[in-house]
Design a protein that fits this description.
635 residues, alpha+beta, seven-stranded mixed β-sheet, six-stranded mixed β-sheet, 16 helices
Length: 635
């Protein structure tokens, strides 16, 4: 039997269909209730109203350190005619107000003399007195049903005499990893094998949502075995997450397994990433919801947010947790497929008084795009995308205070920027350097349009032989500044030992040499084109010229994996992957910015870092870098 057809159900319709299927199958609408000690109740949801059993304070009490007095005795007191009281009692904050007294005078306002307590101002009745029930009155509603308890809530419960609130128990989420190629975390993997990182991530997401998360052993691609484990998991779970096998491949059994164990409500939702998700139920007494989670890690993480998190909140009788949001301008064009909600991960920073969002790589397998994301941008199904500079709504994964201290760098990729990002964060946890790799030309355009603080550039002008400055003059004019970051060695990255014996650019046109290129607008691409033009070599004669990668490390990875024989890149990337290196050129790599920003507070930590001898040493230790001019302003 082949996998069922994957449909394109809109997300809202899919959630509604799943809810109807759960109700029809008899899935419990709520998890059960328990009484828990108030100290262990944070994060749980109240299952019934919480009524105060005692008042707080339970007696009239002193609100300050000082003396308890009768307010009427102080009526005549003034600066010129002090009143000396002999009828008073010394009290500390929180003491019961002694009988007969109705006010407290702060210790700082009392001058003690041998005759008594001298006051230079009258006090009104009940000054600095906390009355019975000022905070909480016995029998009043303290918290409604469906309230997720916070630290302040449990403190209020304790003050009101509620020591064991009735709450919804933690929902139980059982996670089932499947696949012949999946291996446990910590084991060695061979080509074609994958570590079970999805279970680790999903279990952490479930625990973060307040659930009891459990992970089964990895189940091989055997429909009968998966069905058996699914049924066993459903017997103890409030929600089962069945990982992988949700698409339409030969070993994608999730939809048919769920259909056999219960019913499939939806297979395929119009969201990207996460399209082949399966929503269903497992039959039983009671029935149990099941979510077929795609195997790609970004799809898995977002599937939890979109589908599992709302269900888990519903089971606890609470509203779904919502992230704060902000409005941002897009740093570059963002195309999108019509017909699907597109969840895009973005980096954020504040540039010229507005927040700028830079899209991160969008592949469903690029887990680091979530690691580095500051926010999530949803392009609705009916929108083809957004132009650079468009205003968009972004759900925040990081606080705006941190975003305000983010240095946004857009342009050419270089490992030194990654090194600087780590060093800046180590020195100050609130400082972030967020770099996006769009090539030197793209970075200069973004800087011109007010979409970044820095543009990394090593763009060669063939007409003059100069780097970067001619382009700065054309695009930015006199208001730009240029800071030298490094000089670096560019060359051909080759397999260890250089088995093809490549000696330089001339050899790229040899038969059988597979090249991997950088994207248009990248300085490395401009260098290659310049070298080809000098030799009168036609780019079309180089196999692989049209294949593009966006970073030096991606080029090195392609060569290391044997998908290409060579590509132009920096020596540090070759060293990172243990590759050989054929030198081609030494070039400057510069940081371009608005002249007005050079002396600004935001970039000051970066300039200090570039002057640090230890940091310069760490740059040169990467290989192929010279810091002789690092930090020098050349324009």
């Amino acid at each position: 039997m082949s996998s069922p057809f994957v449909s394109d159900v809109p997300a809202a319709e899919a959630l509604a269909a799943w809810r109807e299927a759960r109700a029809a199958a008899g899935c419990p609408p709520r998890v059960g209730t328990v009484r828990v000690p108030v100290g262990a109740a944070v994060g749980r949801v109240t299952a019934e109203p919480v009524w105060a059993r005692r008042s707080s304070p339970a007696f009239d009490s002193a609100g300050m350190d000082g003396i308890a007095v009768l307010a009427a005795d102080t009526t005549a007191a003034s600066e010129t005619k002090p009143v000396v009281l002999t009828d008073f009692e010394v009290v500390d904050t929180g003491d019961p107000l002694p009988p007969r007294y109705d006010a407290v005078v702060m210790r700082e306002h009392v001058h003690h003399t041998p005759e008594g307590a001298e006051l230079r101002a009258a006090v009104p009745p009940y000054q600095h007195v906390r009355s019975i029930g000022e905070d909480i009155s016995a029998a009043e509603l303290l918290l409604p049903e469906g309230h997720r308890l916070r630290p302040v809530d449990v403190a209020a419960c304790a003050a009101a005499g509620v020591t064991e609130p009735v709450v919804r128990r933690a929902p139980v989420v059982v996670i089932i990893p499947t696949g012949d190629e999946i291996r446990p975390i910590g084991t060695a993997v061979e080509p074609g094998e994958i570590l079970d990182t999805n279970s680790l991530m999903l279990a952490a997401q479930a625990r973060e949502a307040g659930c009891d998360a459990r992970v089964t052993d990895i189940v091989p691609d055997d429909p009968q075995a998966i069905t058996a484990v699914l049924r066993a998991a459903a017997a103890e779970a409030d929600l089962v997450l069945l990982i992988a096998g949700s698409s339409a491949g030969r070993d994608d059994y999730t939809a048919r397994v769920i259909a056999e164990a219960g019913a499939v409500a939806v297979h395929g939702v119009a969201v990207r990433p996460g399209h082949p998700v399966v929503l269903g139920v497992v039959a039983g007494e009671p029935a149990t919801p099941v979510l077929g989670v795609p195997g790609y890690p970004v799809s898995a993480a977002l599937t939890f947010d979109i589908f599992a998190a709302p269900l888990l909140a519903e089971l606890e009788g609470a509203g779904p947790r919502e992230r704060p949001a902000t409005t941002a301008r897009l740093a570059r064009k963002l195309p999108s497929v019509v017909g699907m909600d597109d969840w895009v991960r973005v980096r954020l920073g504040r540039v010229q008084d507005h927040v700028v969002a830079t899209p991160l790589p969008r592949g469903a397998g690029v887990l680091t795009s979530l690691v580095r994301a500051d926010g999530l941008l949803v392009v609705p199904a009916g929108v083809e995308g957004h132009h650079a500079g468009s205003e968009v709504r972004v759900d925040l994964l990081r606080g705006l205070r941190e975003i305000d201290r983010t240095i946004v760098a857009i342009g050419s990729h270089d490992l030194v920027l990654d090194l600087a990002a780590s060093a800046l964060r180590a020195a100050d946890p609130l400082v972030t350097l967020a770099s996006s790799n769009v090539g030197s030309l793209g970075g200069l355009v973004a800087l011109r349009d007010g979409l970044c603080h820095l543009a990394g550039s090593h763009l060669l002008d063939p007409a003059t032989g100069e780097y970067t400055l001619p382009y700065v003059d054309k695009l930015l004019g006199p208001d730009a500044a240029v800071i030298r970051l490094v000089h670096r060695d560019q060359g051909l990255l080759v397999a260890p030992g250089n088995p093809l014996g490549l000696k330089g650019i001339d050899d790229l046109a040899q038969p059988g040499v597979r090249y991997v290129n950088r994207q248009r607008g990248a300085g490395t691409r401009a260098l290659l084109d310049h070298e080809l033009a000098r030799r009168d070599l036609d780019p079309a004669a180089i196999p692989g010229y049209a294949r593009e990668e966006h970073t030096h490390l991606a080029v090195a990875a392609a060569v290391a994996a044997g998908r290409a024989d060579t590509g132009l890149g920096i020596l540090a990337a070759a060293r990172a992957f243990g590759l050989g290196f054929v030198p081609v050129a030494q070039e400057p790599y510069d940081l371009v910015l608005r002249a007005a920003d050079v002396s600004g507070e935001l970039l000051a930590p970066l300039w200090d870092l570039l002057e640090n001898p230890g940091f310069r040493t760490s740059i040169e230790d990467l290989g192929g870098y010279s810091c002789a001019e690092t930090g020098t302003r050349i324009r």
